[in-house]
Amino acid sequence: xxxxxxxxxxxxxxxxxxxDSSGSKANVALIExxxxxxxxxxxxxxxxxxxxxxxxxxxxxxEIKYGSNYFLSRLQRKIQHNSNLNLAKRLEPIxxxxxxxxxxxxxxxxALKMENVQDYNLILTLSKGASFRPHYAILKLPKFxxxxxxxxxxxxxxxxxxEPYNWDEPGYLKKIDFFKDLAAKCRWAAxxxxxxxxxxxxxxxxxxxxGVIIPHQLKKTDExxxxxxxxxxxxxxxxHAGNLMKQRPPFALINGFLKFLKKNPEAEKDAxxxxxxxxxxxxxxxxxxxxxxxxxxxxxxxxxxxxVLTMQKSAxxxxxxxxxxxxxxxxxxxxxHCIKSGNPIMILGPAKSEVRRLLGQDYKWWAEIDDVQQIxxxxxxxxxxxxxxxxQNKEYEHLSYYMSSAYLRDKLNKIIL
Length: 417
What we know:
Blueprint (H helix, E strand, L loop, with lengths): L7 E6 L8 H15 L3 E6 L11 E4 L7 H15 L5 H8 L3 H14 L9 E5 L6 H7 L8 E4 L20 H14 L2 E4 L2 H10 L7 E3 L22 E6 L9 H13 L7 E6 L6 H10 L3 E3 L6 H10 L2 E5 L13 H7 L3 E4 L5 H6 L6 E2 L4 H17 L8 H6 L2 H9 L4
Parallel strand pairs: 1-2, 1-4, 2-3, 4-5, 5-6, 6-7, 8-9, 8-11, 9-10, 11-12, 12-13
Helix pairs in contact: 1-15, 2-4, 4-5, 8-13, 10-11
């Protein structure tokens, strides 16, 4: 057990509801490892429901339900619900953000106004998705800036995502201005990956010399559940858990799996490919495939968090699927769970990625996302290993420490003197 410190951290998290997003899961893992590291914590969160974390003071921020932003946000929702108008495309180029965003950040700021910055050694903001509401709220409270660590989990805004995302969004110029202001005023900028830090610093020069790498955290204990009926742990299970976005199509993986079955017909009785999570963009094609491939299982939307963790722990191979790109600066939120399982991880993504950087450029279970031949070869090799003996990857041990509360404590203690 790591001894307690006399250091106190104020955390403002957009959500600590692990069922609402991968970002919230990462938030909770970081908060719990900060507690495990010996820090005294006070957590404000905007989860919209009462949630308590073990032995941590958690305060659910209440939404302000009065004022112009509140009423305009409700009016906008009503108009959009009753018509085909997307008002965001017209309003956000003017204001940068939605009226809901302004009301939410005002609600967060109001909840924090009575806090005394002198009571804390560090002010940490955690977000999810692409909103960065806690960051915007703290930006409006200068008293916190001298101790503020802004955690940046993804590129911002969408306009600055790397290819092949090529996303645009209304009001992106004002969103860029927001992050320029954030870069100038935060004390530290924390990132889950080195490549993300470099990516953001290439657009926002004021982030330079403020960067701290705090990877997604590996928790000592997880709340597991019963395996679902469709998951047979005695089989050779290839598991991908996570959203199948437009930019992360699974079809080369499926074709590589089919090619493997054709070359190894005896594997039909053993092998299963499971794709767990939202896949709405590819639904039409996937429905056709699942009706014709008995060895392929695709979930009907999102699956309970503890169930996914249990499957990852029991899978023969965990799959990380990334986009076809020159660079992937992302560290997937599921990466610590895959490491913790101790089972082989098959990476399908670009040659330059944070996942490959951590596992090593000579990591053998890697292929480009669209390389069907190499994917088949990897699956065949992994199946051969599975048939002969169970493999535990000792090469992951250094990463277990890298994502642990002990490493987190060492990292932060160099900052919070």
